[in-house]
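PROTEIN ENTRY
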Amino acid sequence: MQQKQRCAWVSDDPIYIHYHDKEWGVPIHDDRHLFEFLNLEGAQAGLSWITVLKKRDNYRELFEHFDPLKISKYTPKKIEKILQNPGIIRNRLKVESVIINAKAYLNLLDEWDSFNQYIWHFVNNQPIQNHWDQKKKVPTKTIISDQMSKDLKKKGFKFVGSTICYAFMQAVGMVNDHTTDCFRYDEIRKMHSKKTKKF
């Protein structure tokens, strides 16, 4: 049986393979799921994505499946308890940023009907279909991720630099950055060609 051709960044780790084959680049429109990814991408800053991926279940448990309302009420005592858990990346600034982001998220809903509507407006509610034939051609940030980063920071979000925002866009399907030789490229392209959900 011929092995599937995948993006060059995928290792032989089963967790990474499953993530690439089933999740990466699939358009997400669920508010809480989008909020989760934004924070996990922030946790990844300076580290590899596989490190965060292996700890994702622990993050979900500790942060109550990334419920912004619940997280926004976390006390300093709660934060200290979270920081003692070896199941996550125990960086105080990153942990505290989740609480800060939850509050910023709730404030954002005073302007927008949903987090989904806000996030997807940066690409005019339509996934960007790229055509990269080599990993080295895939950008680490773009004008759009610059705009998203600037606006998120203005709204009070933390750990949302342009590179983090672009990785987030790739993860939640706002762009298709599977290389053209990857078996998922066409599968994601077909998802992108479907009529976009109206907000």
